[in-house]
User: What shape does this take?
Amino acid sequence: MSRLLVAIVAVLTLAPAAMAAQPRASLPDIEDEVMCLQCGTALNVSTAPVAERQREFIRRRIAQGQTKEQIKQALVAEFGPAVLAVPEDDGFSIAAWLVPALLVAGGIAGVLLTARRWRHAGDSGAVPAPRLSPDDERRLDAELAAFDR
Assistant: This one.
């Protein structure tokens, strides 16, 4: 009897954790990560006949109880890697994430370097003010003193 009780407690304790680890897949959750092969847009906005066949494929897999990842793997096996809207995390697909990020970083660096050069070019091109003759200095001092009164 105690073994049965321990088994029931173990099942009740572990069942919610197992169900939380494998959330039930849904069509809207998968549609925004899958591309229509005919028109090249996200499946959730496509009205093409191919998109409807892809949705039906996903619905059948959901009815079978497959997880989101299992369904995405089945889509890739059935339609090829172009069906995924988000590239995978390996090989050439990493370049799809890195190249735009590197281009943005390079653009920012280019703008900063250009701004720095422009700022320093204005400083180095400045001509020093000429020295005034002693007579001009005295006259300037006298005019400034009269202005201050």
In short: The first helix runs from residue 2 to 21. Helices lie at 2-21, 27-31, 49-63, 68-79, 92-124, 134-148. The chain has two domains: 2-86, 104-148. The chain has six helices and no strands.
